From TrEMBL, chain A:
InterPro entries: CBASS_pafABC_assoc_protein, WCX_dom, WYL_dom. It comes from the Bacteria. Residues 146-209 form the WYL domain. This is Transcriptional regulator. PANTHER family: PROTEIN PAFB, PTHR34580. Residues 252-325 form the WCX domain. Pfam families: WCX, WYL.
From TrEMBL, chain B:
PANTHER family: PROTEIN PAFC, PTHR34580. This is Proteasome accessory factor C. Residues 215-234 are annotated as: Disordered. Residues 241-314 form the WCX domain. Residues 147-213 form the WYL domain. It comes from Prauserella shujinwangii. Residues 7-119 form the PafC HTH domain.
Length: 330, 326
């Protein structure tokens, strides 16, 4: 931005803040320095339109109205109570939390927004030291679709995106009236009314492909009062925590070659020794929480881990290894 | 955001900032705004030219410089910063809520107080539409490890840890000089100088099986730099070997779970991906565990190693003593 334009914009803000009367564009042209450079009505009008847009993008609440019924054109002013940040004081531990929060995001866009907030808080007199070294550094990962979805939720606008369900190559365009963005078990979801299925649905942000497009007018989406977004996501199949503590469904007895498979050993209890062929090893017991993924895990160890029992697990592991060796059946 | 796009917010914040801190040093102010002192002086010179209609000497913003310090003598009505935009309030408040849900970072009560104050000050710009739920449940042993690691960091002590490396599938004892505790997506890591590796390493807290605080001072060498997290915790390194895999539909989850590059959608719902790996034994375990759902296209020696391990496993299983009922 040129110095001249920055200066003109600051003067415009000061002029509109200091007036209780609405100032017409013509009046602004006459008093705010910088507009005198406009050589024609048309040039001024273009300049002023651009400046108004800039102020609105900065978040400045520009009011329009007429001072009396006799006025023929609308004027502008900025209400101080809507412009100014409210009083705020933060205790040192609160300020530390704010500084950490501002650098939590891994997206430059969101970090920029959070820093914008810090600049204003500092200008309000709050001491926030965001360069202070901390021993704990938290980070939140977001998907590229996070910011556009959040903006659409806040503006109440319908969105369209390509979505790929887990384990499926099929991309499908989904049209959603978004109600909210939810973080559940360290993953992000968007919840809303799926127009194609005519039912509430939730979508995982990491499976959204490409751009999120907004369609239609803002303010169209109405979020039902009685829906709890978090409970909705938590109750949707596929959102379970794979690491959740669950009670073991069964017990497996394995043979583990000496000096191998440390990952299995640290989850298992040694119960004896056994020689297999010419190889020495431990017999261990392992609680099976998820038998299918346990079979994957055990098969991954190849000859280092063998299943003694149960048979069903031994067979699952054998099937996996056979398929690796010979490929799928006909 | 570009440098020039940051200028207007800064220009609108400077006068209230100096009003709140009479006589503050220019260097310090420049740091707070993340600009050079030279840029800050340019901004102040610009503001000096601005003021109220009339624009006489008594109408312009007046700043007094004394040496390297600045005070505001006339603010032209710019006494408070602009309120937070919806985006600013939302990103800060969601981050604070996420912080409150992450155990072991800061005092949760302080976070909640900060949330309440910012919500009140932000007023009309209150965010909506984002709910931050629970993080991943943390095992009690991991929470204890985290506390011990925190204590060591606070006291500046070295640690002795027994660590399970998932990539090597080995357990090793190491002495490390702690640098910081990272919590990324609710998973905790200790970043430390590892004396065994002679390098900076990240240790997942739930894989630290034993931890002991030593009397010895932590002394990471001066060249030990914390890792840049902008590409995630473990970004694939260009010098790592790579494998090309074809995943069947029921093995496609692996492409979502591990960092990889999708190369092509193939017929039958299969997916061709390129995956980098640090340790070959890890890659072999992954492919074997996918049980035929993944085929190694390259390199040949990896494909060969996977087949060999499968054949060895089947052969050895034949030597298992038969148990009654089998």
């Amino acid at each position: 931005m040129s110095t001249a334009r920055a200066e003109r914009l600051v003067n415009l803000v000061l002029a509109l803040l200091s007036t209780r009367q609405y100032l017409t564009a013509e009046r602004i042209r006459g008093i705010v320095p910088g507009y005198a450079d406009a050589t024609s009505d048309e040039a001024f009008s273009r300049m002023f339109e651009r400046d108004k847009t800039e102020l609105r993008e900065l978040g400045i609440p520009l009011e329009t109205g007429r001072n009396s019924a006799f006025d023929t054109v609308e004027g502008y002013r900025i209400a101080r109570r809507d412009y100014e940040l409210g009083e705020i004081e933060l205790a040192p531990d609160e300020a530390t939390a704010v500084a950490l929060a501002a650098r939590l995001w891994d997206s430059p866009e969101l970090t920029g927004q959070a820093h914008g907030a810090l600049v204003k808080l500092r200008a309000a007199g709050v001491e926030v030291d965001d360069n202070a070294p901390t021993i704990v550094e938290p980070r939140v990962h977001t998907e590229p679709s996070f910011a556009p979805l959040l903006a659409a939720v806040q503006d109440g606008q319908v969105v369209q995106f390509e979505y790929r369900r887990s384990g499926s190559p099929e991309r499908r365009r989904r049209t959603l009236e978004p109600w909210g963005v939810v973080s559940w078990r360290a993953r992000w979801y968007v919840v809303g009314h799926d127009r194609d299925r005519d039912a509430p649905r939730c979508f995982r942000l990491s499976r959204i492909l490409g751009e999120v497009r907004r369609i239609g007018e803002p303010g169209v989406v109405r979020r039902p009062q009685d829906v709890n977004l978090l409970e909705f996501v938590a109750g949707t199949p596929g959102t379970e925590d794979p690491d959740a503590d669950t009670s073991p469904v069964s017990l497996a007895r394995l043979w583990v070659a000496d000096g191998r498979a440390a990952g299995i050993r640290r989850r298992a209890r040694p119960v004896g020794r056994m020689t297999v062929g010419a190889d020495e090893g431990d017999v261990v017991e392992l609680d099976l929480l998820f038998p299918e993924s346990a079979a994957d895990w055990i098969a991954g160890h190849g000859p280092d881990v063998l299943v003694i029992e149960p048979d069903v697990l031994a067979k699952s592991v054998r099937d996996r290894l056979e398929r690796v060796l010979h490929g799928e059946g006909p | 955001m570009s440098r020039s796009a940051e200028r207007m917010p800064r220009l609108l914040a400077l006068v209230p900032y100096f009003l709140a801190r009479p006589g503050i040093n220019i260097e310090e102010a420049a740091q707070d705004f993340d600009v050079s002192p030279k840029q800050l002086r340019k901004d102040l010179e610009l503001l000096w030219m601005c003021g109220l209609p009339g624009y006489g000497p008594g109408d312009l913003i007046d700043l007094s410089f004394e040496g390297d310090t600045v005070s505001v003598t006339f603010d032209a009505g710019m006494r408070r910063p602009l309120r937070l935009t919806g985006g600013e309030a939302t990103t800060l408040l969601i981050a604070l809520r996420a912080l409150a849900e992450t155990p072991g970072v800061v005092d949760t009560a302080a976070v909640h107080r900060a949330i309440a104050k910012i919500e009140e000050a932000a007023g009309a710009a209150q965010p909506s539409g984002v709910v931050v739920g629970h993080g991943v449940r943390e095992a009690a042993s991991t929470a204890r490890t985290r506390e011990t690691v925190r204590d060591a960091l606070q006291a500046g002590r070295a640690l002795r840890i027994r660590y399970y490396s998932a990539s090597r599938d080995r357990i090793t004892d190491r002495t490390v000089d702690p640098m910081r505790l990272l919590i990324v997506q609710a998973i905790g890591y200790l970043e430390a100088w590892c004396r065994l590796a002679g390098d900076v390493r990240k240790f997942r807290l739930d894989r630290i099986d034993q931890v002991e605080v030593l009397d010895e001072q932590a002394a990471p060498p001066p060249h030990a730099e914390p890792t840049d997290l902008s590409e995630g915790v473990f970004s694939p390194q260009p010098d790592q070997p790579e494998a090309v895999l074809v995943l069947d539909p029921d093995a496609r989850w692996a492409a979502e779970y591990y960092p990889c590059e999708e190369l092509a959608e193939l017929d039958g719902g299969r997916l061709r991906v390129r995956m980098r790996y640090g340790d070959r034994s890890w890659m072999v375990r992954l492919v074997l565990g996918l049980g035929g759902g993944a085929r190694v296209e390259a390199p040949d020696d990896l494909a060969q190693a996977v087949r060999q391990r499968a054949a060895d496993a089947l052969e050895r299983a034949r030597h298992l003593p038969v148990i009654s009922g089998q």
